[in-house]
Amino acid sequence: MAKAIFLGTGASTAVPVINCRCKVCRSDSKYNKRLRPSVLIEKNRKKILIDVGPDIRMQAVRYKIKKIDVLILTHAHFDHMAGIDDLRVFNRIQKEPLRCYLLRETFKEVKIKYDHFFKKNLKHHTQGARFDFHVLDDKKHTFRFDDISFEYFSYFQDSKKVLGVRIDNFAYLTDIKRYDDNILKKLTNLDVLVVSALRHKKSDVHFNIKEALEFIKKIKPKKAYLTHLGHEIEYFSDSKKLLENVSLAYDGLELKF
Ligand SMILES: [Zn+2]
Ligand SMILES: [Zn+2]
């Protein structure tokens, strides 16, 4: 048995958006408040964090995260990794570099954007987070950590390659726009599929709700959740416009699988 908790379900600006007066941004409901997208999975007493956006400090405090065993980075965009320096606190707690799995393309970007991770003698530097990077090979489709096995695959957001993961019967695919039908084979017999959908209107870099529902129909999971939601999505009214086995995710949602 494993558990997933959604630390954030918002699009890159989060919801409410700075200085926005729209109905969703003014909503008092917790279902309409969304931090940057991230999920924490607990399995066999291990904690697996998928993505580390700029809200991670607040998310770690809110959900009382005491340790992280594995970090999975889906891609190197701001809303998915801008909080990575804050993970240095876990280096101090755990007294070891944090194990991180990522695609080769993402690793290349990390080396440029976060060059301080690769410098020695940063003892007194506030950005001295330490990682044990494991670059995922395109030709392989699985990796193991301890007694947990992961399946992985990639797809595209515009020209950027993004990593998707499956643990048991749970799969998480964020920032998807284009994909090769090959990935469908890896997504059979799912209990839970999490997929991103930005809004109703078309986007060049994200599925909209319609595209996400079409994707879900192909995969036929028992249950699907939409995440990475923009402020155009109102939880209560838009929940009614989905399929029977599909729900909008919200911050704090917990699932067992
Ligand atoms: Zn708004
Ligand atoms: Zn994103």
* Ligand identities: zinc ion
CATH architecture: 4-Layer Sandwich
Per the CATH scheme, the topology name is Metallo-beta-lactamase, Chain A
Physical arrangement of strands within the biggest beta sheet:
6-5-4-3-2-1-14
Low-confidence sequence ranges? none
Mean residue pLDDT:
95
Number of H- or I-type helical stretches: 7
Protein structure class? alpha/beta
Q: Give the CA-CA distance, first to last residue.
A: 6 Å
Largest sheet: 7 strands, mixed
Q: Helicity, in percent?
A: 10-25%
The ordered H/E elements are EHEEHEHHEHEEEEEEHEHEE
Written description of the protein model:
The protein is an alpha/beta fold and 257 residues long. The chain has a single domain (2-256), classed as Ribonuclease Z/Hydroxyacylglutathione hydrolase-like (Metallo-beta-lactamase, Chain A). Helix content is 19%, strand content 29%. It is built from 7 helices and 14 strands. The protein has helices at residues 23-26, 56-62, 78-81, 88-94, 104-113, 209-219, 235-239; strands at 2-8, 38-43, 46-50, 70-72, 98-103, 131-136, 142-145, 148-157, 160-167, 170-173, 192-196, 223-227, 246-248, 254-256. The strands form 2 sheets. A 7-stranded mixed sheet has the order 6-5-4-3-2-1-14. A 7-stranded mixed sheet has the order 7-8-9-10-11-12-13. A hairpin with a 2-residue loop joins β8 (148-157) and β9. The longest helix is centred in the last third of the chain and has 11 residues, at 209-219. The radius of gyration is 18 Å and the shape is globular. 40% of the residues are buried. Bound molecules: zinc ion (ZN) (2 copies). One zinc ion (ZN) binds next to α3. One zinc ion (ZN) is lined by residues 12, 77, 79-80, 175, 228.
